[in-house]
Amino acid sequence: MRAAVEALAAALRGGLDPDADPPRSVVPVRRGQLLLMPAEWGRYAGVKLATVAPANPGRGLARIQGQYLLLDAETLTPLDVLDGVALTSVRTAAVSAVAVDALAEPAAARLVVFGSGPQARSHVEALRAVRPVSDVVVVGRDQERARVLAAEVGARVGSPSDVAGADLVACCTTAREPLFDGALLAPHATVVAVGSHEPDAREVDAETVRRSTVVVESRETALREAGDVVQAVSAGACEPGELLGLAAVVRGEAKATPDAPRLFKSVGMAWEDLVIAARAYEEGS
């Protein structure tokens, strides 16, 4: 995880432009969606084919499945095929950690995680890699799954009101409506929301967006796919021009407003998969 965080941050500092990513292709099918995510950066190109099947957890299968094909950028020769589920799990949490490392208070120690699946688990690991997280609260709809995750990561089970005392909040769910009241957030809190890439779904409310410095991977992509942002803009809680790009924040070209919460809204982009797939390939070669 630490290597993934470092690879993403280094790529952004090195000039990678998230806005150069082609739009994600989303094809509805009978039982879910097919996602196609191509990208190119430096010596590599690649494409992820992922599937989203909402009914799969009830069958004992992963909700998201897929494969990643890594290519040589000069010749477009295939170099490697990676497990798309494992790659997505790492890259989503790693990009959140890049944002938290750039935005959160250095001493941030108390983390509230919404969700009890693979992304929640990965986010605990990733945020512990960049901040001295010592107190973790898990909030989940399924109490048994929440208890299992809490036992695995050394946490306790809590409720949405626990965000009032949180330094960090990670929203890692399939929720389509806000998970907590944004008025509860402390002025120093940093929130990451990663659960959706659909404009009609959101994990945080308009109050969270209104109070916060909002950072996104790409302004254009967020205004197209990030329901947390799209709906807040529609409600007048945020202006599109107020959104900060992650690359600018990592490079020190843009800064959060002092004494106000910080929100990083991620939809997951192809450049993130490519950077981490390339690092994995190089480390395995």
Structure commentary:
With 285 residues, the chain is an alpha/beta fold. It has two domains: 2-86 and 271-284, ornithine cyclodeaminase, domain 1 (2-Layer Sandwich), CATH 3.30.1780.10; 88-269, 3-Layer(aba) Sandwich (Rossmann fold), CATH 3.40.50.720. It contains nine helices and 13 strands. It has helices spanning 2-13, 84-103, 118-130, 143-153, 206-211, 219-225, 227-234, 246-250, 270-284; strands spanning 25-29, 32-41, 44-52, 64-72, 78-83, 110-114, 135-139, 156-157, 168-171, 190-193, 213-216, 244-245, 262-265. The strands form two sheets. Strands 8-7-6-9-10-13-11-12 form an eight-stranded parallel beta sheet. A five-stranded antiparallel beta sheet has the order 1-2-3-4-5. α1 packs across α9 (270-284), α2 packs parallel to α3 (118-130) and α2 (84-103) crosses α9. The longest helix has 20 residues, at 84-103. It comes from Amycolatopsis acidiphila. Pfam families: OCD_Mu_crystall. This is Ornithine cyclodeaminase family protein.
